[in-house]
Specification:
Blueprint (H helix, E strand, L loop, with lengths): L1 H26 L34 H8 L1
């Protein structure tokens, strides 16, 4: 009977291990400094305008005509 319980409980044990490591990382490990002294100054991110999409081919394109002729 124990041979059936161990493989069935393995995913739950792994999930518990990952959740406990996440909790440990959030609660126990020291937080990084709020304002690093040697941080390089970065330029502010300016999003570019979205590019215009090319016009889709019409239904009467050359490929459609070739298929119809066959």
């Amino acid at each position: 009977m124990y041979a059936l319980i161990v493989p069935a409980s393995a995913p739950f044990v792994l999930l518990a291990a990952v959740m406990s490591l996440s909790w440990w990382e959030d609660r126990i490990l020291p937080a990084p400094p709020a304002d690093p002294v040697d941080a390089p100054a970065e330029a502010p991110f300016a999003p570019t305008a979205p590019s215009l999409l090319a016009e889709l081919p019409h239904a009467d394109s050359a490929l459609t005509r070739e298929v119809v002729r066959r």
